[in-house]
Design brief:
Layout (H helix, E strand, L loop, with lengths): L5 H11 L30 E3 L3 E7 L2 E5 L13 E5 L1 H19 L9 E7 L4 H12 L16 E5 L4 H11 L6 E3 L16 E3 L4 H14 L4 E7 L2 H14 L5 E8 L16 E5 L2 H13 L6 E4 L15 H4 L3 E5 L7 H6 L10 H11 L35 H20 L21 H10 L1 E4 L2 E4 L9 E9 L5 E10 L8 E3 L26 E5 L8 E5 L14 E3 L6 E3 L1 E3 L5 H26 L4 H5 L2 H16 L10 H34 L13 H26 L2 E5 L6 E7 L3 H24 L9 H25 L3 H31 L7 H4 L5
Parallel strand pairs: 2-5, 2-6, 6-7, 7-8, 9-10, 9-11, 11-12, 12-13, 23-25
Antiparallel strand pairs: 1-5, 3-4, 13-16, 14-15, 16-17, 17-18, 19-20, 21-22, 24-25
Subcellular location: Cell membrane
Main location: membrane
Membrane topology: Multi-pass membrane protein
Length: 852
């Protein structure tokens, strides 16, 4: 093996490019002896067609090469291309179909025709250069007898590989001929200084490496290998992936290159990581995978770039044990309505002199259409069936690269159509001129390519300032088909136009992983350390590789337990933290019993009042308001139950809102009752007419209005920042306290403040009426009940703030129960005493203090 210097490589390239012209001599001959410039060799294209405007096409119709001997002692033979690729041949036929459709169209380039010249690049930069120079030249000496002129070429559709496109683009640049690539995704092409005439209908690799990085992070693959081809595409893709992985937990186990001249046993490194990302074309992958299969390495989860994820050459059943489960990003699929029928017209009968059609037949059917044949294949009988490994050639239901070719040809056609529509005086060129229809220059066409915008099969096609198209990928998974071959299944998408974090959509339930597994494979250098141990990074290795050392007393550094765990007494392992909340234990049961007893007592009082509703005590003390108060108190007792049990979102929202609304209703009823008592005694004075403003309807309005204010506050609270369950791990590090966060402290204290305001107003009014005449002064009882209520809640505030954990809920429950019992006993115990034990005092005269 030896390495060529850049200069020798340059001369080798030019020697092998046999369409160059021999117009030089070692010595400087006299002018009379200068030989005329003539074509030195013939490089026949795959297909040609004349037209008013000619475009070129370059496709990798073969995926392998045999390099000649370069000892420089004699003229080397041309590079021999082998390994016919039916998939690439379909791309070429798609270009041919698109041109024929355009020529038949009455709306696009009417009265003009497109011609084409399609050449084979053999998936190699050297032969790609040969194709590029050939597409620039005439096809024979008759077309270019003095070699002083080139065929009229306006644009080139090509190439597939980025390495070949770099060569082709640089050859076309001096002639300012635009090229539109259908499969070259290297990020290097965004440099408009280096590639000013380059466009593409495939997304930039920057988006692909971003998508792959997100995929690796998504499935927590922290230890991955990267394999790339020996070209710019692989180099730039690797650089982009490493850039995207910075700041993530993903480490690259190795970076390996597949050489153009492949050496056996280069795939032994594959098993060092369970997940392998490959940036390579199918031509370079073929010998690499063959070697990989010979070594019988299985269980590798391949992540494929768009360059080979849809390669039909690897879909045979023999590849499934090694490549099954492969996942990758493929270019967007489209629809070409006539492609299927068009492919069926390509046969040896219709193209008897085309050697590529012969190779196609041999590849598809395993027989030779002509005899004799150098391939030594049997003669075709017409009864052969399509070979399984090339069945994708006829599958046109979801073309991808072929669809890109189709778009590229139509982009040229639409741009040329717009150019021909130009009106003199308003053109884009010097002095507002237009291009001459009989002498269109390539750089003039490029101007219109930059601005072209059209729709095809429902998709909008256009180019940005860097010549790139819309970044969109299908996520493809290689699964086992019914016949044992590999089928390409869509399992998601990547849309680069979406906001950050929303680009990647994966349907995990549809994915089959390596080894025909349904569970996501694990690819890590070192498994996560168990609780109670620490990481010890291995010297000279990535941070993903470490040893787990027990976290004992001699440890220099220990890991923190997960948030939900706590170390044991020996600090050797992490144990789950104790989870606490106000449960139905001794405290919870006690509060529940008190709550239920309070509610039952209230209901009992309600029944007593209802049974004696026609007696003086009940009637004098406004039976309707009394029933309202008892109704509200019942719910005040019961709302305490919401504070017991594991907090949920609904219980958290119900806790404070139910308590505040029921208490507000209760205090509103007491306020109305206080006003009625105060008015009843002051109205006895001559000229007072205040009672007409405190009738039953007005009382209800007061209760409704005062309660509605609290309802509005609670509604605003729930809408803006509702309470929610939270896990408090800060108060006590060994416990997790489940509690309800109030959401908005302002709303919480507004609710309590409003209840306090109502209570204070009741207290003031009741205090003023405490010395009114009568044996049964209701205002005096209201004063005591409100006094107890305010005392309980004033004591509640500091106790609630200082109570730890579950005791905060217990304090609030106690405050609710204590204040409810205070209201119940102060307001209704004296009345029940008279009704049940002193019925002789249950008269109007006694209550009014008029009894003799």
């Amino acid at each position: 093996m030896f390495a060529l210097s850049p200069l020798s490589l340059f001369y080798s390239v030019n020697i092998l490019t046999l369409t160059h012209f021999q117009c030089f001599s070692v010595t400087s001959p006299a002018p009379s002896t200068v030989r005329p410039c003539t074509l030195q060799n013939r490089f026949q294209p795959a297909f040609t067609a004349n037209g008013d405007y000619v475009i070129g096409g370059i496709f990798p119709l073969h995926y392998n090469q045999e390099m000649p001997d370069l000892n420089c002692t004699y003229r080397p033979p041309p590079v021999r291309c082998n390994g016919f690729d039916p998939r690439a041949f379909r791309w070429a036929l798609t270009m041919k179909l698109a041109v024929e459709e355009i020529n038949q169209s009455t709306q696009l380039l009417a009265n003009y025709t497109l011609g084409y010249k399609i050449f084979d690049s053999c998936a190699y930069p050297l032969t790609g250069q040969r194709a590029a120079v050939a597409v620039l030249n005439g096809l024979s000496e008759e077309e270019s007898p003095t070699c002083s002129d080139a065929s009229p070429l306006l644009a080139v559709i090509g190439e597939s590989g980025s390495a070949q496109s770099i060569v082709v683009s640089r050859i076309l640049q001096p002639f300012r001929i635009p090229m539109i690539s259908y499969f070259s995704s290297c990020a290097c092409f965004t440099d408009r200084r280096s590639y000013p005439t380059f466009f593409r209908v495939i997304p930039n690799d920057d988006y692909q490496v971003k998508a792959i990085a997100q995929l690796l992070v998504r499935f927590n693959w922290t230890w991955v290998g990267v394999v790339r081809g020996d070209h710019e595409y692989g180099r730039f893709a690797l650089q982009g992936l490493l850039r995207e992985l910075k700041g993530t937990k993903v480490c690259v186990a190795y970076q390996e290159m597949i050489p153009l001249l492949y050496n056996r046993q280069k795939s032994s490194f594959i098993s060092l990581a369970k997940v392998v990302v490959v940036f390579s074309a199918e031509g370079e992958m073929t010998p690499f995978l063959r070697d990989y299969m010979i070594q019988n390495i299985t269980g590798i989860q391949w992540v494929a770039s768009e360059a080979w994820v849809t390669a039909s050459v690897f879909t045979g059943s023999e590849y499934y044990p090694f490549l099954g489960g492969t996942i990758g990003f493929g270019i967007r699929k489209g629809h070409i309505s006539r492609l299927s029928d068009y492919l069926k017209t390509v046969s040896p009968e219709n193209y008897p002199n085309n050697p590529l059609v012969k190779e196609l037949w041999e590849a598809l059917y395993g027989c030779s259409p002509y005899a004799p044949s150098a391939s030594q294949l049997p003669l075709c009988t017409g009864q052969e069936i399509l070979l399984v490994q090339h069945s994708a050639y006829m599958n046109t239901s979801s073309p991808r690269v072929a669809y890109n070719v189709y778009k590229a040809v139509y982009a040229v056609a639409h741009s040329l159509h717009n150019l021909l529509l130009c009106k003199p005086g308003v053109g884009p060129f010097e002095n507002n001129s237009c291009a001459q229809s009989n002498n269109v220059l390539p750089w003039q066409l490029q101007h219109y390519i930059e601005e072209v915008k059209f729709k095809i099969a429902g998709e909008e096609v256009n180019f940005d300032l860097k010549g790139d198209s819309v970044p969109y990928y299908d996520i493809i998974n290689w699964q086992k088909g019914t016949s044992g071959n590999i089928e390409l299944v869509n399992v998601g998408l990547f849309d680069g136009t979406k906001a950050a974090g929303e680009e990647l959509v994966i349907y995990e339930d549809k994915i089959t992983w390596a080894g025909h597994q349904r569970e996501v494979p694990v690819s890590v250098c070192s498994a996560s350390c168990p609780p109670g141990s620490r990481k010890a990074v291995r010297r000279g290795e990535p941070i993903c590789c470490f040893d787990c050392i027990p976290c004992d007393s001699d440890s220099v550094e220990c890991i923190f337990c997960p948030e939900d765990f706590w170390s044991n007494e020996d600090r050797t392992i992490c144990i789950p933290k104790k989870v606490e909340f106000l449960a139905y234990d001794s405290l919870g049961i006690a509060l529940t019993v008190i709550s239920v007893v309070g509610a039952c007592l209230t209901i009992g009082v309600f029944l007593v009042f209802f049974h004696h509703r026609n007696t003086a005590v009940v009637r004098v003390n406004n039976s309707e308001l009394s029933f309202f108060i008892l109704f509200a108190l019942t719910f005040c007792f019961l709302c305490c139950l919401v504070f017991i049990g594991e907090p949920t979102r609904w219980s958290c929202m119900l806790r404070h809102t139910a308590f505040s609304i029921t208490f507000s209703l209760c205090i509103s009823c007491i306020l109305a009752k206080t006003l009625v008592v105060l008015a009843a005694f002051t109205a006895t004075r001559p000229g007072d007419n205040i009672m007409k403003w405190l009738g039953p309807k007005h009382q209800r309005v007061i209760i409704f209005s005062c309660t509605m204010v609290q309802v509005i506050i609670c509604a605003a609270w729930l809408i803006d920042a509702s309470p929610y369950p939270s896990r408090n791990t800060k108060y006590e590090r060994s416990k997790i306290i489940l509690e309800c966060s109030v959401g908005s402290s302002l709303a919480f204290w507004c609710v309590l403040g409003y209840i306090g305001l109502q209570a204070c107003l009741c207290f003031v009014l009741a205090f003023l009426a405490r010395k009114l005449p009568g044996n049964f002064n209701e205002a005096k009882f209201i004063t005591f009940s409100i006094l107890i209520f305010c005392a309980v809640w004033l004591a509640f505030i500091p106790a609630y703030i200082s109570s730890p954990g579950i005791y905060a809920d217990a304090v609030e429950s106690f405050a609710i129960l204590a204040s409810s019992f205070g209201l119940l006993f102060c307001l209704f115990a004296p009345k029940c005493y008279i009704i049940l034990l002193k019925p002789e005092k249950n008269t109007k005269q006694h209550l009014m203090g008029k009894e003799k």
